[in-house]
Amino acid sequence: MKNTARRLLLAAGIAAIAFAAPAAAQDAGMKRWKQGTGWGWVWGPEDEVGALNEMTDASRAAALRLAAQGRAYDLGLPYDRNSYRWPGHNPGEIMTFRTPEGVARQRDLPFTTAEQGNTGHTRWHSSAMFISDNVATQIDGLAHITHGADNHWYNNFRADQWTGDFGVRKADVTTIPPIVARGVMIDVAGQKGMEALPSNYEITVADLEAALRAQNVDVTPGTVALVRTGTARFWGENGSDHAKIGQHDTAGIGMAAARWLVEQKGAMMIASDTSGLEVLPPRPADSQFVGGSFNPVHVYLLVNQGVHIGEFHNMERLAADRVYEFAYVATTNAIRGTVAGTALRPLALR
Amino acid sequence: MKNTARRLLLAAGIAAIAFAAPAAAQDAGMKRWKQGTGWGWVWGPEDEVGALNEMTDASRAAALRLAAQGRAYDLGLPYDRNSYRWPGHNPGEIMTFRTPEGVARQRDLPFTTAEQGNTGHTRWHSSAMFISDNVATQIDGLAHITHGADNHWYNNFRADQWTGDFGVRKADVTTIPPIVARGVMIDVAGQKGMEALPSNYEITVADLEAALRAQNVDVTPGTVALVRTGTARFWGENGSDHAKIGQHDTAGIGMAAARWLVEQKGAMMIASDTSGLEVLPPRPADSQFVGGSFNPVHVYLLVNQGVHIGEFHNMERLAADRVYEFAYVATTNAIRGTVAGTALRPLALR
Amino acid sequence: MKNTARRLLLAAGIAAIAFAAPAAAQDAGMKRWKQGTGWGWVWGPEDEVGALNEMTDASRAAALRLAAQGRAYDLGLPYDRNSYRWPGHNPGEIMTFRTPEGVARQRDLPFTTAEQGNTGHTRWHSSAMFISDNVATQIDGLAHITHGADNHWYNNFRADQWTGDFGVRKADVTTIPPIVARGVMIDVAGQKGMEALPSNYEITVADLEAALRAQNVDVTPGTVALVRTGTARFWGENGSDHAKIGQHDTAGIGMAAARWLVEQKGAMMIASDTSGLEVLPPRPADSQFVGGSFNPVHVYLLVNQGVHIGEFHNMERLAADRVYEFAYVATTNAIRGTVAGTALRPLALR
Amino acid sequence: MKNTARRLLLAAGIAAIAFAAPAAAQDAGMKRWKQGTGWGWVWGPEDEVGALNEMTDASRAAALRLAAQGRAYDLGLPYDRNSYRWPGHNPGEIMTFRTPEGVARQRDLPFTTAEQGNTGHTRWHSSAMFISDNVATQIDGLAHITHGADNHWYNNFRADQWTGDFGVRKADVTTIPPIVARGVMIDVAGQKGMEALPSNYEITVADLEAALRAQNVDVTPGTVALVRTGTARFWGENGSDHAKIGQHDTAGIGMAAARWLVEQKGAMMIASDTSGLEVLPPRPADSQFVGGSFNPVHVYLLVNQGVHIGEFHNMERLAADRVYEFAYVATTNAIRGTVAGTALRPLALR
């Protein structure tokens, strides 16, 4: 879709909402979602939050009621220097910065010496990290992906105004609210009886429908939808088996599934257990849908719809326990300028 | 307390638990806590979790029932390069690593070029971070502080065995389970009618009791206790007013309050809104209690009791809304080797 | 000077050289320098080297003949995490990355184990550095400073084309040739009988002339001119006395001295013992000379003339030994994209 | 050789020097070198310099006289994020820290604004580097390699005393003096008529002798010996062809050649054009010579002899021009704690 065309469409959509949609949206308990178009740039010109604006006290309370058993599933994958990562990001190192032995030898801080009272030898560890804001279990912020020759992201924030030296200055990760919402895991690999989907497999709408039917659960407006390919089962201790992970990491949803989830079902956020959610390489028609792109589903969700993406969410224990519906609770770190929550541990509470 | 003495005491404590305590502990719904001694190294020689082992499905379910209104309070303070931090940690930088403009100019990745199909100019932001594992809103892991000439930490893990080049190898942050527990905020500053406690103010047991009485709420075994000094109100956008923050940051609990919370009330974790929870400088008797230390409450809680510490937890909105009891939900990042959750956003769900 | 005006002037300069200057320039052994205008963008549209193009085998051989005694003066100032630096650059950390103890404990590399033959316990230290390309003893590359609304640097390379994600892509530090040239130290502080020049002192042409006269040495075309303020004497072990260094660091040359050195004397590079060579704050007329700038001498030298700048060059031992003429030998690190040689040790060979 | 045995031998060597060696050593213009044993820990218990202590004004002057033509050969290999490196070191990133566009957008420094006089739009580039102290063209400092269960390095400095949190505290890179010495390139690949030596090829004494004979030049006491394998010819722009470089990178000298160069010829420093100078894997007898080691020649040179090692020195242009004797001039960066000069540009002046 051309940029101009999209804007017209969005403008039309806004008008539609203003005049006609409220009834339907309220039916679904939604503020702005409209079946058939989803969201878009519908939250005003200053908005940096997107579809997560739909959360309310009522929706959070309803989500938390799903956690009546008090079981907590940690969806995070542990990260270290050897972990699998996308080549467009920087490598990472965790370095022991201060060590008990180093503090003792260095004697650079007077309060650590026995002479000044530290006769019990209190010392500490701390680590310096050189790390990407996009590794292991992530939530992509709305500023992560830009599109168009004008390098705009969600809500028309543009690089020539809002890309700074210390990260982005609009829709950075600190604008992602704490996410407390109904979560639904769609176990596509499980429904197909596979350990993990094969390389380059496109998850279709039919796949999602079949899995949901088998699970007897549905995606309703405002749900965080988690799509399982099975890739995370090969992560192990630290994601060091790059070949095996890479083999399955290219499976994912195409544009049709993304649009169905957002426009027909009202998924407020979509996550998967791969590094990039979407099938790779993109289907030519999907690429053309956004005017030519190596990551069209990202453009569609993050830029055009304002829908956050979850990546490398570990659903293996959910799958083993056949847990398909839960309270999804996730917060990113509060680091200004960064564009994604990195090495996170979202929770599925049941 | 001498190390040997402490071990004897702990051994005695373990024996006591084994033979006599279960009844009382079970009364409080606790597995190992014993009124009068708290915890200690009571979870077996391989344990890296400490007091948080007390969490159960039942305790989490009970905690989550406190969130019936669905209100979410974000306790995190936003971090950037100018934020206040303890001088023992490294400074931080968030650097725009890949930028839309840079990707376009650099042309180092073929899939980003129009020739290879990216005619819609999809590009991205990512940030490289050089950051400490101990900044802004933190949860100190049990390996953070060491003590004794043998540089041991919780459960007798020692530096000469378990301090590695890539962080610690026992009780790192990945061993902190997702924390879902009853939280109680003890608003000491509020009870005293102060914006924030003055420099070097020691919060006493009487202060805690008075605040709890005024709030009509109690700390029960398994509670996460959050003690408010008011310091976080001066954090602002990014904690850049070092002088003002520093002025109040030295207020905190002393050993008496720490022991009362753990040994008498069963607080499973203690947090505050300062960089280090405890009053600075430490009272001489508190320092001597652990054999001489610049941070005796840290030694007592992390090393001796296995009780995690929360720092720079922002309770300003809780205080404004007079919310004193809630579900506390926090996860650290899953970064192997690191010793604290950094720049976190714990939640108080109400 | 307006950008357009400067271009015309430069164009005029080039024309002048092409038709009339060769005789005079050759007289001085120079290829392109012209008394009265200096250099400029005279080396062709692809040039990234600037005035250092003047070096030849003959000029290097002549310079090295000044080192007949074989004495070597190290002009570098040692850098560590506490060193004084300009606030526009990132702080630095040197971190022990691999340590003998860590290698032994970590056992992550099989060849380090006794089982695989390392019975003699060979291990190693290496450090990871997080460092700026602009600290301690520096040589500013021609891409360091940009000017004009079009963000151009030397030879009209512009940010919108040549600033990449991994540093600059034109005139980075790898394009600075090894510098082997006649060096002359102009001891302004010494001539005035001062330990160091006072804050904000502007070094004038008269100051330079007086010092050179007292030293009985002259700046000739192709010389590297080192101007001594005395600031480096307060660097000590690691430049940690920021107040004392900062007090003198604002002394330096103004536009008149810079122009005299380049246009009248043919200095091929200018260095000093401060962080920024030029007097701060800049004189209003100097700022206006380049259209309004906080660093007009940098703009004049780096952008307009193609003359490299040396900073924090330690001349204390040269001054003590009254060594005023020598072979100046310096190489930067060969790190692509960086814009300055950092923590260097240039040599004065005598 | 066992540690105790070596110490006795060294003690014997010191005695021998004290009573008998001076005549022979002075004959060669050396202070402490003794034919048959080389150096060792002969410079006193506080020494951090090693064999480079041999340099004098006279030796430097003599070396510089070799540069009569004034030709400068840059021996450095350019480094970037894609460069070949040893897996024991951290990866590197050069990041544009401040950019003209970012400075303009960020407006975080008042002096950069037009309101405060910067009407000419002066801005700047600087880079933040995350880099190893051991990449591209290096000089290994004497603290780089440790040996023995006590983790000692040159002159018996031990990790339990002198390894700090911010690098090593004895014999770091700042203790390496500026190196100005006679250099001799030994073109083993050239003498054999090969582009580059094959994988795992051990350069023998006979190889060195044959090449020196063909070149009609000799290694004399105090010489920096550069041994050419031809590997650097595959470095290209940035050392990104890891497979091709790796194929030749394992060729190098064994213990016999190392000992011959140091003990018989008096080479004061030995360099090559590979990442590690010595043949890999080490010959079993070489490994046993130091009690079992994956890097026995490093142990012999750095730890036992106090002889610095040069790595990835690019000799391709020297070879093309058949330049075998020259003044070798190299300085490392002055960064406290680091153990090697990194991404250097040593010079061969002719």
The quaternary organization reads as homotetramer
CATH class type of the largest domain in chain A: Alpha Beta
Low confidence ranges of chain A: 1-26
Mean pLDDT of chain A: 93
Task: Count interface residues per chain for the largest interface.
Answer: A-B, 112 and 112 residues
Q: Tell me the overall shape of chain A.
A: globular
The biggest sheet of chain A amounts to: 9 strands, mixed
Overall number of domains of chain A: 2
Tally of extended strands of chain A? 17
Determine the CATH superfamily of the largest domain in chain A: Putative cyclase
Physical arrangement of strands within the biggest beta sheet of chain A: 1-17-15-9-11-13-14-5-16
Query: Helix segment count of chain A?
Result: 12
Query: Would you tell me the structural class of the helices and strands of chain A?
Result: alpha/beta
Instruction: Please name the CATH topology of the largest domain in chain A.
Output: Glucose Oxidase, domain 1
Share in helix of chain A: 25-40%
Strand content of chain A: 15-25%
Distance between the termini of chain A: 40 Å
Protein name (chains A, B, C, D): Cyclase family protein
InterPro entries (chains A, B, C, D): KFase/CYL, KFase_sf
Organism (chains A, B, C, D): Craurococcus roseus
Signal peptide (chains A, B, C, D): 1-25
